[in-house]
Amino acid sequence: MEAVATGLTTGEAPFIDSARSAGQLYIEQPYHLYSPENHNAWRLLFERLSPRWERYANAHFLKGVGSLCLDPLHVPRLDDVNRFLNPLTGFRARPVSGYVPAFVFFDCLRNREFPTTITIRRPDHLDYLPEPDIFHDVAGHVPMHTDRNFAEALVRFGECAHTAVEIAAGIGDHDRRLETLTSVIRAMARFFWFTVEFGLMRSPAGLKVYGSGLLSSFGEIAHAIDSPDVQRYPIQLEWAINQSFEIDHYQPLLFIVDSFDHLFSLVGQLEEWMKLGRLSNVAPGEPAVNPHDLESFLERL
Question: 109 with 157: CB under 8 angstroms?
Answer without folding.
Answer: yes
